[in-house]
Design a protein that fits this description.
Strand content: 15-25%
Order of helices and strands: HHEEHHHHEEE
Radius of gyration: 24 Å
Distance between the termini: 78 Å
Number of strands: 5
Number of domains: 1
Structural class: alpha+beta
Largest sheet: 5 strands, mixed
Length: 191
């Protein structure tokens, strides 16, 4: 019985040590992820960390969202496409007569990327707090700050990155879609 336990222990230790030796042989020095995947990862992390800007304080000066989903991908033309879907708070907006406007669509992008609404409080007109330069600077500093990207490639990426936003109202006939270049000051509505 004792001999059996000792033999089992030796066998277990040998197997365990063999796995440790294999782990030492893992070489990640010559393995690199493609630049496209790294850019997608940077966009994904940025959006994940900044969606909270949209969720906080909603309902006072902007729409209160109950859920925001997003997807970032490269299309066939190697352009970054960001799709966002914000579901308005069902409890609040089923009874409240509020129909989303194009400014709400733009504010969704603005709050996530710049943490500013970009519209004046009283007359809901565009102010100069969010413009192409501000959006470009944020994306360059926080997402495209990759050492192997030169200025021309960053500019091309910025100008070709598209965003599509869907604001989903509890009454589907009031839902709104808008899209455009990520750095456009104002996105355009579409059906």
């Amino acid at each position: 019985m004792k001999f059996r336990n000792v033999l089992f222990s030796i066998f277990f230790v040998c197997c365990f040590n063999n796995e440790i030796l294999k782990a030492d042989k893992v070489d990640l020095d010559n393995k690199f992820i493609p630049l496209k995947d790294f850019i997608l990862l940077k966009f994904d992390l940025f959006l994940k960390n900044n969606i909270k800007n949209l969720m906080q304080g909603g309902g006072i000066t902007g729409i209160a969202y109950q859920n925001v989903d997003y997807e970032v991908k490269f299309n066939q033309k190697n352009m970054v496409e960001i799709s966002m879907r914000g579901v308005m708070n069902k409890k609040r907006y089923t009874s409240k007569k509020y129909i989303p406007k194009l400014s709400d669509c733009n504010q969704m992008r603005n709050k996530i990327f710049v943490n500013k609404y970009g519209y004046s409080f009283f007359n809901r007109s565009l102010n100069n707090m969010v413009n192409e330069e501000v959006l470009s600077n944020i994306v360059n500093k926080r997402i495209l700050n990759i050492s192997i990207l030169d200025q021309n490639l960053k500019k091309d990426l910025l100008n070709s990155t598209k965003i599509k936003i869907e604001v989903v109202h509890p009454k589907t006939e009031y839902s709104l879609n808008c899209s455009g270049k990520l750095i456009n000051t104002e996105l355009k509505a579409f059906e």
